[in-house]
Amino acid sequence: MNLDIYGQGLCALVTAACMASTGHNVTLHLNSQALERALNDGEAIDREPGLALLIQEQRRSGRLVLPGESVSANTHSPRVIFVALPPDQQNDAMTLVQAIAEQTVGALLVVNQSTFPVGTTAQLHGLIQHPSNDWPREVVALPDLLQEGAALKGFTRPNQVLLGAESPWAERLIRELLRPFNRREDRIRVMGTREAEFTKLAITGMLATRLSFMNDMANLADSLNVDIESVRQGMGGDRRIGHEYLYPGCGFGGRNFSRDVMNLVSTLEDKGVGSTLLAQVLDINEQQKEVLFRKLWQFYNADLKGRTVALWGAAFKPGSSRIDNAPSIRLIEALIAQGCHVQVHDPEALPALQDEFGVQEGLTYHEDPYNAAIDADALLIVTEWKAYWSPDFTRLKTAMRQAVIFDGRNIYDPAFVADQGFVYCGVGRQVREL
């Protein structure tokens, strides 16, 4: 089929590349000359693992094109439009879909992947109807459930696909489009459009709640001299709970995740429902972003001025180059405000961090993690990149002025690190004898 995909975020890029890889002719509408140039030059317009290579392959095949480039036409197929725009472009989506509907003579399917308010898909459906047109015209909701760092796997081998469809014709067409990724087991969960939109927000709210709950429990564990790791495993072993999203740490970030939780809170408030729980979830998370700073402050008895602090990890999660709402931002700001010299390493996010902070006194960026630790009075683990899990502790201890590690992601075994000659402080962790 011929597919048109509108958007410039991760969802649009992954959808375009994956659909082209299964034989569809895809036109990607980026609405950005800079991004189009980057695409034509073979540059990675998103640092998602494997995405740049897949896009380049599909560009060379001719199945993934930009507007104005040649694409083989098939007038017998329905026109299929994917809309994956940011939440603040709802009005743009309305204008776009209405214009496309006016230009389309035959059958039309609009696939709404955007995280817009609940009910937007139904509004879009109303915009594309024409009383004198006997061809089917439908809008479905296909909420974006992709996770940065694992987006390609999430699209090609999904755990589940939420499909909001109100007509058998639309459902059949979507099933055909997703058939290559839905062969082993039917992962498509069909429901109404409003239900699909709301389910997306509710999933995000539940995951955020689990994270904040575990952070609350970890902070309580610190005061009770309880090792939260044993508690986490005990909770996860209960089948009613499971292990997912039960890892305490120094707070969650990410543009999409944080934004979706806030959208859910806003939706509830707009409807007069309100949510004390979700408001507390967000509040706990913002406070948790300061947990490493508080521990460092207490360790050095509020005497931080002139100290050198190493940060390993700036991205909001491993596998991403983004720092949207990342704990590292607030942490760096607090450390610099206290007169610390901050030395940061991250495998992917240094360019984004430099865009955020620029060149300023008290902040240096390092391509090598051990260089970032030179003369440090403490090492703070902020993002759990796999490269940080098994460092050369002897080399690290030699580089640092003070052998102190604040593990914001609980990736180390406290007793082992202590045995290497370090003072260890995690989130809810206790140093027990080996």
From TrEMBL:
This is UDP-glucose 6-dehydrogenase. The lineage of its organism: Bacteria, Pseudomonadati, Pseudomonadota, Gammaproteobacteria, Oceanospirillales. NAD(+) binds at T115, E148. The keyword rRNA-binding does not apply. Substrate binds at K200, Y245, L246, Y247, P248, G249, G253, K317. NCBIfam families: NDP-sugDHase. It comes from Terasakiispira papahanaumokuakeensis. It catalyses: UDP-alpha-D-glucose + 2 NAD(+) + H2O = UDP-alpha-D-glucuronate + 2 NADH + 3 H(+). It holds the Pfam family UDPG_MGDP_dh_N.
